Structure to design on (79 residues):
């Protein structure tokens, strides 16, 4: 999901329109619009939140698996 999103983003030329930026022009040729930047930030936040939710869920699964294995091992050692 994230890699597909990143692949769809256009290449940004870092120094494109530098003179326009210095002149505080609203629209800079060859750079994304403010609306596009806001859309990218919203998508970034969405992907970031999804990743956090996934990581939290996976961590909980790992904790449960580890807890189960430890209990099984402790039970086995007692006998």
């Amino acid at each position: 999901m994230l890699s597909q999103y990143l692949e769809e983003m256009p290449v940004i030329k870092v120094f494109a329109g530098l003179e326009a930026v210095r002149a505080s022009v609203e629209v800079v040729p060859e750079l994304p619009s403010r609306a596009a930047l806001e859309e990218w930030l919203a998508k970034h936040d969405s992907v970031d939140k999804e990743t956090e939710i996934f990581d939290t869920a996976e961590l909980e699964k790992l904790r449960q698996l580890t807890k189960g294995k430890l209990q099984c091992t402790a039970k086995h050692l007692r006998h």
The two ends are 48 Å apart (CA to CA). Residues 16 and 54 are 37 Å apart (CA to CA).
